[in-house]
Design brief:
Layout: E1 5-21, E2 24-38, E3 41-46, H1 60-75, H2 83-90, H3 97-115, H4 119-122, E4 129-131, E5 133-136, H5 142-154, E6 159-163, H6 170-179, E7 185-188, H7 198-202, E8 212-213, H8 222-230, E9 235-237, H9 244-253, E10 258-261, H10 263-266, H11 269-281, E11 286-288, H12 295-304, E12 328-329, E13 339-341, E14 351-352, H13 354-360, E15 361-367
Parallel strand pairs: 5-6, 6-7, 7-8, 8-9, 9-10, 10-11
Antiparallel strand pairs: 1-2, 1-15, 2-3, 4-13, 12-14
Helix pairs in contact: 1-3, 2-3, 9-11
The site of magnesium ion has 7 residues, from loops.
Length: 368
């Protein structure tokens, strides 16, 4: 696989509804796209970081820098024997997994097209219809949240995740449980608590949540293990898991019973497969997380979710929950059963819309 040309673009895309978590509110996404040309085949990848260094330390600027000054010069013009070999070459860079993932995933797209197989099959996927849940941001009022939950349930989604933070947690969950006693419900804290909140976090047990996601420090494992010993609600780690090694250590320490796998956070499909394998060998359920992706990242999440260990509904929902118009054709749609049927066509299975991408582009740089 010879890499002939790479293009970086930043697009700006307003969200249909703003999205609020314990670390802030997003109204418009700044997304860096990577487009790779290799022997006549074009592949796309998406940098999934937030606008600011709050979910993790990456930003569109740091990703652009790492891609332009390191990852692109290291790969351009060379003939690679496999995508895994490229992933291996990225190893010496500490972190910056979302920058790495964007380029690596574009190469997986190319590889799938070249072999004439769907991307999801190439990475070892088996599920042809994947279960979907939604992640609902913090709302201005509990009434607004309850209304949103009802809308998503009417849409067929199989589980509801709500964002919580200190001061907006137990009372909110109590109201949800009163109205929806049997709802498949979970809460995501995005690292908003600490072990000193132990007594308070124990109160969550009464709501019979499927899990609580990342209650403690963004890079912590040990405190989560201490917390898991004290609460019945399964802990799911998101921010803390950057690699298969992290997953192995977190599970061994008893820090979580479930893992959220995000392509960007772990550095691309190669690493995501390894995290998946660690979970599967240890019978720890995994699911695919989301980062408010545009269609390109979203379509790659769909592919990842077909691996057999993704046994719980992911945060992968329809394009129209995020964008008035997505940048892929067809858009990602969800059935009335709350599932996505994966495309049978070779490659990504969703075509990037060049006209729309061009209109949304605010910055561009070409290499090679
Ligand atoms: O913690 O899962 C998270 C969005 C941005 C940053 C972090 C998270 C999220 C979500 C939204 O929960 C998932 C999605 O709908 O894409
Ligand atoms: Mg999360």
């Amino acid at each position: 696989m010879k890499i002939d040309r790479i293009e970086l673009r930043e697009i700006q895309l307003p969200l249909v509804h703003c999205f609020e978590t314990s670390f802030g509110r997003t109204t418009r996404r700044r997304i860096v796209l990577v487009r790779v040309e290799s022997e006549g085949v074009t592949g796309w990848g998406e940098v999934t970081c937030g606008e600011g260094p709050f979910y993790n330390y990456e930003t569109p600027e740091t990703a652009w820098h790492i891609l332009r000054d390191f990852l692109i010069p290291w790969t351009l013009g060379k003939d690679w024997s496999s995508v895994e070999e490229v992933a291996q070459c990225f190893q010496p860079i500490r972190g910056h997994n979302m920058a790495k993932a964007a380029l690596e995933n574009a190469l997986w797209d190319i590889e799938a097209q070249r072999k004439g197989v769907p991307l999801w099959k190439l990475i070892g996927g088996t599920l042809e219809e994947i279960p979907c849940g939604v992640s609902i941001g913090i709302q201005d009022s509990v009434e607004a949240l309850l209304e949103k939950i009802q809308i998503e349930l009417d849409g067929g989604y199989q589980r509801i995740k709500v964002k919580v933070k200190p001061g907006r947690d137990v009372d909110v969950l109590d109201r949800i449980r009163r109205q929806f006693p049997r709802l498949a419900l979970m809460a995501d804290a995005n690292a908003a608590y600490s072990l000193s909140d132990l007594a308070h976090l124990k109160l969550f047990d009464r709501f019979h949540l499927m899990m609580i996601e990342q209650p403690l420090g963004w890079d912590d494992i040990l405190d989560h293990a201490a917390l898991q010993r004290e609460i019945a609600t399964p802990i799911c780690l998101d921010e803390s898991i950057h690699s298969a090694g992290d997953a192995r250590k977190a599970i061994a320490a008893g820090a979580c019973k479930i893992i959220n796998i995000k392509l960007g956070r772990v550095g691309g499909f190669t690493a995501a497969q390894r995290v998946h394998d660690v979970c599967r060998e240890r019978k720890v359920p995994a699911w695919c997380g989301g980062m408010l992706e545009s269609g390109i990242g979203r379509a790659q999440n769909v592919a990842l979710s077909t691996l057999p260990g993704f046994s719980l509904p992911g945060d992968i929902s329809a394009s129209r929950r995020y964008w008035s118009e997505d940048i892929i054709e067809p858009e990602v749609t969800v059935t009335s059963r709350g599932t996505i049927r994966v495309p049978p066509t070779p490659g990504l299975g969703y075509a990037p819309r060049l006209d729309r991408i061009e209109k949304l582009t605010v910055r561009r740089e070409t290499f090679g």
